[in-house]
Amino acid sequence: MSQTTINDAEIAKFTAMAEEWWDPTGKFKPLHKFNPVRLSYIREHLIRHFGKDGALMRPLEGLTILDVGCGGGLLCEPLTRLGARVTGIDAAERNIAIARIHAEQSGLDIDYRATTSEALVEAGATFDVVLNMEVVEHVDNVPLYMQSCADLVRPGGLMFTATINRTARAFALAVVGAEYVLGWLPKGTHDWKKFLTPDEIRSLITRNGLVVTDETGVVYNPLADSWRAAPDMGVNYMMLAARPSA
Fold first, then answer.
1. 3-state helix, strand, coil in the chain (%, to 5)
2. At what angle do helices 8-16 and 93-105 cross, to 10 degrees?
3. Helix H or strand E segment including 215
4. Measured between alpha carbons, how far is 219 from 241 in angstroms, rounded to an integer?
5. Exposure of 89 by Cβ count < 10 A (0-12 exposed, 13-18 middle, 19+ buried)?
6. Which of 197, 136, 133 is nearest to 160 (CA)?
7. What is this structure's pTM?
């Protein structure tokens, strides 16, 4: 393909940290802390949208889910345990290698591939659900990336997007605070100029034929040392969009 979403510097950055994906006290500690709230949001909306029985042990049985920029598989594994058939893709081959090893050790069957969203579109792939979580701020050619993610959603399917707002507060908390003061993330993990506002994400979603159906902020509670969904979208936020049925 003549166009790509791959940012070589970002790939190198996450490749260098790949061995630590499954260390809850390592460089991905913030993502481990963040995982429960985003997993709960995904599970809740999948059950509601697809009419699944939330009381079942594997309520997502029968759904196909693509996790774009899956890293070490922090979302892929719990969603597989919930019954979904999960494909995880990442442009960093080392991330995929780590994800495969951990899935095998956990006895989980997950289709991991070192590829990109635009390559899957070219191959004609589609899924019931596409996860675009904490990735858009790390890619090149954001319009192409968002278009390719949307193109992978089947009629009647869903796309979840999570990212960081481009606000002064996000710069203070997600960059200065998280990387330089608290040391939650390695310095240079995020570039504030690459953050996107909710309006920008909505525009990119709707121009590609999807309809935004829900959105929420995600805020950190330092006393509980945990994240929760909240109306405040000034820093972290998630957005849900659906492709109308054919």
1. 40, 20, 40
2. 40
3. strand 211-221
4. 21
5. buried
6. 133
7. 0.90
